Amino acid sequence: MQSGEDVTVVYTPGHGLVADTLIMHGVVRALAHMGIYDAWVERVGERYRIEFVGKPRKLVDTDIGEALLRSAKLYLVEGVLTGPLRKINDTNPNISAFRSWVSDLAEAVSEADLLEFTPDHRERRREGRSRSKALITLHISLSSVYGKYHPRDFSVTEGVQYSVCGTCFAFANVGLAYGAAALVAREGSDLDAVLMSVAPVDRVSAVDLLVMQRLTEGYTVLRGRGAPLLAAPMYWLSTGETLYAVDAELDLVVWRVAKSGNFIRSLDVVSIPVDNLMKFVAEVKRRVRAWPRVVERLMQQAPEALARLTEFVIYGGDLYGVVRELATLRCNEGQRRGEELCIGEAASIIADVLVDLKTW
Protein backbone atom coordinates (compact mmCIF):
# COMPACT_ATOMS: atom_id res chain seq x y z
CA MET A 1 0.00 0.00 0.00
CA GLN A 2 1.21 3.47 -0.86
CA SER A 3 1.15 6.32 1.65
CA GLY A 4 -1.65 8.78 1.05
CA GLU A 5 -4.05 6.15 -0.31
CA ASP A 6 -7.44 5.81 1.34
CA VAL A 7 -7.23 2.67 3.43
CA THR A 8 -10.31 0.94 4.79
CA VAL A 9 -9.93 -1.27 7.87
CA VAL A 10 -12.37 -3.95 9.03
CA TYR A 11 -12.16 -6.50 11.84
CA THR A 12 -13.57 -9.99 12.11
CA PRO A 13 -16.20 -9.98 14.86
CA GLY A 14 -14.73 -12.27 17.52
CA HIS A 15 -16.80 -15.46 17.28
CA GLY A 16 -13.80 -17.70 18.01
CA LEU A 17 -10.80 -18.83 16.01
CA VAL A 18 -12.68 -21.13 13.61
CA ALA A 19 -15.51 -18.75 12.71
CA ASP A 20 -13.26 -15.70 12.48
CA THR A 21 -10.77 -17.54 10.25
CA LEU A 22 -13.60 -18.53 7.89
CA ILE A 23 -15.03 -15.00 7.90
CA MET A 24 -11.56 -13.62 7.14
CA HIS A 25 -11.20 -15.94 4.14
CA GLY A 26 -14.70 -14.99 3.02
CA VAL A 27 -13.81 -11.30 3.09
CA VAL A 28 -10.53 -11.87 1.21
CA ARG A 29 -12.35 -13.89 -1.46
CA ALA A 30 -15.10 -11.30 -1.79
CA LEU A 31 -12.57 -8.45 -2.10
CA ALA A 32 -10.93 -10.30 -4.99
CA HIS A 33 -14.31 -10.57 -6.74
CA MET A 34 -14.65 -6.81 -6.26
CA GLY A 35 -11.30 -6.31 -8.00
CA ILE A 36 -9.57 -5.37 -4.72
CA TYR A 37 -6.20 -7.12 -4.34
CA ASP A 38 -4.26 -4.43 -2.48
CA ALA A 39 -5.13 -5.84 0.92
CA TRP A 40 -3.41 -7.23 4.01
CA VAL A 41 -4.56 -9.44 6.86
CA GLU A 42 -3.13 -9.23 10.37
CA ARG A 43 -3.90 -11.70 13.13
CA VAL A 44 -4.95 -10.15 16.43
CA GLY A 45 -5.45 -12.96 18.92
CA GLU A 46 -8.37 -14.99 17.56
CA ARG A 47 -9.52 -12.09 15.39
CA TYR A 48 -8.20 -10.55 12.16
CA ARG A 49 -7.59 -6.99 11.07
CA ILE A 50 -8.11 -6.58 7.31
CA GLU A 51 -7.01 -3.41 5.54
CA PHE A 52 -7.49 -2.67 1.87
CA VAL A 53 -7.45 0.06 -0.75
CA GLY A 54 -10.53 0.28 -2.93
CA LYS A 55 -14.26 0.78 -2.77
CA PRO A 56 -16.08 -2.40 -1.70
CA ARG A 57 -19.51 -3.46 -2.87
CA LYS A 58 -22.14 -5.54 -1.15
CA LEU A 59 -21.66 -9.28 -1.47
CA VAL A 60 -24.81 -9.70 -3.56
CA ASP A 61 -23.32 -7.36 -6.19
CA THR A 62 -20.35 -9.66 -6.85
CA ASP A 63 -20.00 -12.77 -9.01
CA ILE A 64 -19.48 -14.92 -5.93
CA GLY A 65 -22.62 -13.55 -4.26
CA GLU A 66 -24.69 -14.10 -7.39
CA ALA A 67 -23.39 -17.68 -7.69
CA LEU A 68 -24.34 -18.43 -4.08
CA LEU A 69 -27.83 -17.03 -4.61
CA ARG A 70 -28.34 -19.06 -7.79
CA SER A 71 -27.19 -22.24 -6.06
CA ALA A 72 -29.40 -21.54 -3.03
CA LYS A 73 -32.51 -20.89 -5.14
CA LEU A 74 -31.91 -23.99 -7.26
CA TYR A 75 -31.64 -26.13 -4.14
CA LEU A 76 -34.68 -24.60 -2.42
CA VAL A 77 -36.88 -24.89 -5.52
CA GLU A 78 -35.66 -28.11 -7.15
CA GLY A 79 -33.53 -29.82 -4.48
CA VAL A 80 -30.44 -29.79 -6.72
CA LEU A 81 -27.03 -29.20 -5.15
CA THR A 82 -24.59 -27.15 -7.25
CA GLY A 83 -21.46 -25.10 -6.79
CA PRO A 84 -20.22 -24.32 -3.29
CA LEU A 85 -23.38 -25.73 -1.70
CA ARG A 86 -22.08 -29.25 -2.44
CA LYS A 87 -19.12 -28.76 -0.12
CA ILE A 88 -21.21 -27.02 2.55
CA ASN A 89 -23.69 -29.90 2.48
CA ASP A 90 -21.09 -32.67 2.46
CA THR A 91 -19.25 -31.27 5.52
CA ASN A 92 -22.47 -30.68 7.46
CA PRO A 93 -23.19 -33.24 10.20
CA ASN A 94 -26.77 -32.03 10.71
CA ILE A 95 -28.50 -32.87 7.42
CA SER A 96 -31.97 -32.18 8.82
CA ALA A 97 -31.03 -28.51 9.30
CA PHE A 98 -29.57 -28.00 5.82
CA ARG A 99 -32.66 -26.62 4.12
CA SER A 100 -33.08 -23.90 6.73
CA TRP A 101 -29.30 -23.27 6.49
CA VAL A 102 -29.60 -22.62 2.73
CA SER A 103 -32.70 -20.46 3.20
CA ASP A 104 -30.85 -18.36 5.79
CA LEU A 105 -27.84 -18.15 3.48
CA ALA A 106 -29.91 -16.76 0.62
CA GLU A 107 -31.22 -13.97 2.87
CA ALA A 108 -27.80 -13.37 4.38
CA VAL A 109 -26.06 -12.97 1.00
CA SER A 110 -28.65 -10.38 0.02
CA GLU A 111 -27.84 -8.19 3.03
CA ALA A 112 -24.15 -8.90 3.65
CA ASP A 113 -21.93 -5.81 3.75
CA LEU A 114 -18.30 -6.20 4.86
CA LEU A 115 -18.21 -2.57 6.05
CA GLU A 116 -20.38 -3.84 8.92
CA PHE A 117 -17.23 -5.37 10.42
CA THR A 118 -16.32 -2.62 12.87
CA PRO A 119 -14.32 -3.43 16.05
CA ASP A 120 -17.53 -3.45 18.12
CA HIS A 121 -19.61 -5.40 15.58
CA ARG A 122 -20.46 -8.37 17.82
CA GLU A 123 -21.57 -6.16 20.70
CA ARG A 124 -23.47 -3.76 18.46
CA ARG A 125 -25.40 -6.58 16.78
CA ARG A 126 -25.81 -8.46 20.09
CA GLU A 127 -24.46 -11.65 18.63
CA GLY A 128 -23.63 -14.72 20.69
CA ARG A 129 -25.89 -16.97 22.76
CA SER A 130 -29.22 -15.50 21.81
CA ARG A 131 -32.85 -16.36 21.14
CA SER A 132 -33.23 -13.34 18.85
CA LYS A 133 -35.15 -14.15 15.66
CA ALA A 134 -33.19 -11.39 13.93
CA LEU A 135 -30.04 -13.52 14.12
CA ILE A 136 -29.02 -16.81 12.44
CA THR A 137 -27.69 -19.93 14.13
CA LEU A 138 -23.97 -20.33 13.48
CA HIS A 139 -23.83 -24.02 12.58
CA ILE A 140 -21.18 -26.30 14.02
CA SER A 141 -19.14 -26.63 10.80
CA LEU A 142 -18.78 -22.83 10.71
CA SER A 143 -17.80 -22.33 14.32
CA SER A 144 -16.87 -25.59 16.04
CA VAL A 145 -19.38 -24.42 18.67
CA TYR A 146 -22.38 -26.63 19.25
CA GLY A 147 -25.23 -24.16 19.28
CA LYS A 148 -27.85 -26.10 21.22
CA TYR A 149 -26.22 -26.20 24.63
CA HIS A 150 -24.83 -23.37 26.71
CA PRO A 151 -22.66 -23.95 29.80
CA ARG A 152 -23.69 -21.45 32.45
CA ASP A 153 -22.72 -21.59 36.13
CA PHE A 154 -21.55 -25.21 35.73
CA SER A 155 -24.93 -26.26 34.36
CA VAL A 156 -26.23 -26.84 30.84
CA THR A 157 -29.03 -24.66 29.52
CA GLU A 158 -30.90 -26.08 26.54
CA GLY A 159 -32.27 -24.03 23.68
CA VAL A 160 -29.72 -21.16 23.73
CA GLN A 161 -28.10 -21.05 20.31
CA TYR A 162 -24.97 -19.21 19.23
CA SER A 163 -26.33 -16.78 16.66
CA VAL A 164 -24.90 -14.13 14.35
CA CYS A 165 -26.07 -11.52 11.88
CA GLY A 166 -26.51 -12.15 8.17
CA THR A 167 -23.19 -10.54 7.28
CA CYS A 168 -21.23 -12.87 9.59
CA PHE A 169 -23.20 -15.89 8.37
CA ALA A 170 -22.70 -15.10 4.68
CA PHE A 171 -18.95 -14.48 4.90
CA ALA A 172 -18.42 -17.55 7.10
CA ASN A 173 -20.09 -19.67 4.41
CA VAL A 174 -17.92 -18.13 1.69
CA GLY A 175 -14.90 -18.93 3.87
CA LEU A 176 -16.03 -22.53 4.34
CA ALA A 177 -16.59 -22.97 0.61
CA TYR A 178 -13.27 -21.51 -0.53
CA GLY A 179 -10.97 -21.15 2.46
CA ALA A 180 -11.24 -24.53 4.22
CA ALA A 181 -10.03 -27.89 2.92
CA ALA A 182 -11.93 -30.93 4.18
CA LEU A 183 -11.52 -34.68 4.50
CA VAL A 184 -14.96 -36.26 4.81
CA ALA A 185 -15.94 -39.81 5.72
CA ARG A 186 -19.64 -40.66 5.69
CA GLU A 187 -21.35 -43.95 6.46
CA GLY A 188 -25.12 -43.90 6.29
CA SER A 189 -26.24 -40.90 8.31
CA ASP A 190 -22.96 -40.79 10.29
CA LEU A 191 -20.24 -38.32 9.34
CA ASP A 192 -16.68 -37.52 10.31
CA ALA A 193 -15.13 -34.41 8.76
CA VAL A 194 -11.75 -32.79 9.44
CA LEU A 195 -11.61 -29.19 8.21
CA MET A 196 -8.44 -27.13 7.73
CA SER A 197 -8.00 -23.42 7.09
CA VAL A 198 -4.82 -21.38 6.68
CA ALA A 199 -4.25 -18.43 9.03
CA PRO A 200 -1.40 -15.91 9.24
CA VAL A 201 0.79 -16.04 12.31
CA ASP A 202 1.30 -12.29 12.05
CA ARG A 203 0.60 -10.45 8.78
CA VAL A 204 0.07 -11.68 5.24
CA SER A 205 -1.01 -10.24 1.91
CA ALA A 206 -4.46 -11.08 0.60
CA VAL A 207 -2.81 -12.32 -2.59
CA ASP A 208 -0.89 -14.97 -0.63
CA LEU A 209 -4.12 -16.11 1.01
CA LEU A 210 -5.84 -16.28 -2.38
CA VAL A 211 -3.00 -18.46 -3.62
CA MET A 212 -3.52 -20.80 -0.64
CA GLN A 213 -7.25 -20.89 -1.40
CA ARG A 214 -6.31 -22.74 -4.58
CA LEU A 215 -5.50 -25.60 -2.21
CA THR A 216 -8.40 -25.19 0.22
CA GLU A 217 -11.42 -24.76 -2.03
CA GLY A 218 -11.77 -28.48 -2.70
CA TYR A 219 -12.60 -31.40 -0.44
CA THR A 220 -11.95 -35.14 -0.39
CA VAL A 221 -14.31 -37.99 0.44
CA LEU A 222 -12.42 -40.79 2.20
CA ARG A 223 -13.21 -44.47 2.03
CA GLY A 224 -13.88 -46.09 5.39
CA ARG A 225 -13.19 -44.36 8.67
CA GLY A 226 -12.31 -40.73 9.20
CA ALA A 227 -8.75 -39.40 9.37
CA PRO A 228 -6.75 -38.92 12.58
CA LEU A 229 -6.53 -35.19 13.17
CA LEU A 230 -2.79 -34.83 12.49
CA ALA A 231 -2.89 -37.17 9.49
CA ALA A 232 -5.30 -34.82 7.70
CA PRO A 233 -2.86 -31.96 6.94
CA MET A 234 -0.22 -34.33 5.52
CA TYR A 235 -2.82 -36.10 3.37
CA TRP A 236 -4.30 -32.83 2.12
CA LEU A 237 -0.96 -31.27 1.17
CA SER A 238 0.42 -34.48 -0.36
CA THR A 239 -2.51 -35.45 -2.56
CA GLY A 240 -3.60 -31.99 -3.69
CA GLU A 241 -2.17 -29.53 -6.19
CA THR A 242 1.50 -28.60 -6.33
CA LEU A 243 2.43 -26.51 -3.31
CA TYR A 244 2.83 -22.77 -3.61
CA ALA A 245 5.53 -20.76 -1.87
CA VAL A 246 4.40 -17.84 0.30
CA ASP A 247 6.62 -15.45 2.19
CA ALA A 248 4.52 -15.15 5.34
CA GLU A 249 4.56 -17.54 8.29
CA LEU A 250 1.32 -19.51 8.41
CA ASP A 251 -0.66 -21.63 10.83
CA LEU A 252 -3.25 -24.24 9.95
CA VAL A 253 -6.46 -24.14 11.98
CA VAL A 254 -7.80 -27.70 12.15
CA TRP A 255 -11.11 -28.86 13.59
CA ARG A 256 -13.29 -31.95 13.48
CA VAL A 257 -17.08 -32.23 13.36
CA ALA A 258 -18.80 -35.58 13.67
CA LYS A 259 -22.21 -37.21 13.82
CA SER A 260 -22.62 -40.66 15.30
CA GLY A 261 -26.18 -41.89 15.75
CA ASN A 262 -28.12 -39.00 17.26
CA PHE A 263 -25.04 -37.24 18.63
CA ILE A 264 -23.37 -34.29 16.88
CA ARG A 265 -20.04 -33.18 18.26
CA SER A 266 -17.19 -30.79 17.60
CA LEU A 267 -13.76 -32.08 18.59
CA ASP A 268 -10.06 -31.29 18.55
CA VAL A 269 -9.75 -27.64 17.53
CA VAL A 270 -6.01 -26.98 17.12
CA SER A 271 -3.76 -24.43 15.46
CA ILE A 272 -0.52 -25.88 14.10
CA PRO A 273 2.46 -24.32 12.29
CA VAL A 274 2.36 -25.40 8.67
CA ASP A 275 5.62 -24.04 7.20
CA ASN A 276 7.80 -27.11 7.96
CA LEU A 277 5.06 -29.41 6.76
CA MET A 278 4.84 -27.60 3.43
CA LYS A 279 8.63 -27.73 3.03
CA PHE A 280 8.68 -31.45 3.81
CA VAL A 281 5.88 -32.31 1.39
CA ALA A 282 7.40 -30.20 -1.41
CA GLU A 283 10.77 -31.92 -1.02
CA VAL A 284 9.48 -35.47 -0.63
CA LYS A 285 7.23 -34.98 -3.68
CA ARG A 286 10.33 -33.96 -5.62
CA ARG A 287 12.26 -37.08 -4.58
CA VAL A 288 9.41 -39.60 -4.56
CA ARG A 289 7.20 -39.24 -7.61
CA ALA A 290 4.73 -41.76 -6.17
CA TRP A 291 4.41 -39.87 -2.87
CA PRO A 292 0.68 -39.05 -3.29
CA ARG A 293 -0.03 -42.77 -3.77
CA VAL A 294 2.16 -43.65 -0.78
CA VAL A 295 0.14 -41.27 1.38
CA GLU A 296 -3.12 -42.69 0.01
CA ARG A 297 -1.98 -46.15 1.13
CA LEU A 298 -0.85 -44.88 4.51
CA MET A 299 -4.27 -43.33 5.10
CA GLN A 300 -5.92 -46.65 4.22
CA GLN A 301 -3.50 -49.04 5.95
CA ALA A 302 -1.84 -47.11 8.79
CA PRO A 303 -3.38 -43.66 9.35
CA GLU A 304 -1.90 -43.45 12.85
CA ALA A 305 1.60 -43.83 11.34
CA LEU A 306 0.82 -40.94 8.99
CA ALA A 307 -0.29 -38.87 11.98
CA ARG A 308 2.95 -39.65 13.84
CA LEU A 309 5.00 -38.67 10.78
CA THR A 310 3.12 -35.37 10.63
CA GLU A 311 3.68 -34.79 14.35
CA PHE A 312 7.42 -35.35 13.93
CA VAL A 313 7.69 -32.97 10.96
CA ILE A 314 5.91 -30.24 12.93
CA TYR A 315 7.18 -30.75 16.47
CA GLY A 316 10.16 -33.13 16.31
CA GLY A 317 10.64 -36.21 18.46
CA ASP A 318 11.93 -39.73 17.84
CA LEU A 319 13.18 -39.81 14.24
CA TYR A 320 14.30 -43.42 14.45
CA GLY A 321 10.94 -44.55 15.83
CA VAL A 322 8.96 -42.79 13.10
CA VAL A 323 11.09 -44.13 10.25
CA ARG A 324 11.23 -47.64 11.73
CA GLU A 325 7.43 -47.74 11.91
CA LEU A 326 7.14 -46.76 8.25
CA ALA A 327 9.83 -49.24 7.21
CA THR A 328 7.95 -52.17 8.77
CA LEU A 329 4.81 -51.53 6.72
CA ARG A 330 4.59 -54.13 4.00
CA CYS A 331 3.36 -53.96 0.42
CA ASN A 332 0.53 -56.19 -0.64
CA GLU A 333 0.98 -58.57 -3.58
CA GLY A 334 -0.50 -56.16 -6.13
CA GLN A 335 1.88 -53.42 -5.07
CA ARG A 336 4.88 -55.78 -5.26
CA ARG A 337 4.11 -56.66 -8.86
CA GLY A 338 3.41 -53.07 -9.86
CA GLU A 339 5.79 -50.22 -10.48
CA GLU A 340 4.57 -48.02 -7.67
CA LEU A 341 6.80 -47.36 -4.69
CA CYS A 342 5.82 -49.23 -1.51
CA ILE A 343 5.48 -47.51 1.84
CA GLY A 344 8.37 -49.41 3.41
CA GLU A 345 10.63 -48.67 0.44
CA ALA A 346 9.90 -44.95 0.80
CA ALA A 347 10.97 -44.91 4.46
CA SER A 348 14.68 -44.39 3.76
CA ILE A 349 13.94 -41.48 1.41
CA ILE A 350 11.62 -39.96 4.01
CA ALA A 351 14.43 -40.25 6.57
CA ASP A 352 16.86 -38.50 4.22
CA VAL A 353 14.41 -35.64 3.64
CA LEU A 354 13.82 -35.22 7.38
CA VAL A 355 17.57 -35.15 8.08
CA ASP A 356 18.28 -32.76 5.21
CA LEU A 357 15.52 -30.30 6.11
CA LYS A 358 16.13 -30.51 9.88
CA THR A 359 12.58 -29.31 10.46
CA TRP A 360 12.59 -30.38 14.11
Structure commentary:
- With about 350 residues, the protein is of the alpha+beta class.
- Helices cover about 45% and strands about 20% of the residues.
- Strand 6 and strand 7 form a beta hairpin.
What can be said about this structure in brief?
This protein has about 350 residues and is of the alpha+beta class. The protein has helices at about 15-35, 65-80, 85-90, 100-110, 120-125, 140-145, 165-180, 205-215, 230-240, 275-285, 290-300, 305-315, 320-325, 335, 345-355; strands at about 5-10, 40-45, 45-55, 130, 135, 150, 155-160, 160-165, 180-185, 190-200, 205, 220, 250-260, 265-275.
Keywords:
4-stranded antiparallel beta sheet, 360 residues, single chain, 5-stranded mixed beta sheet, globular, 15 helices
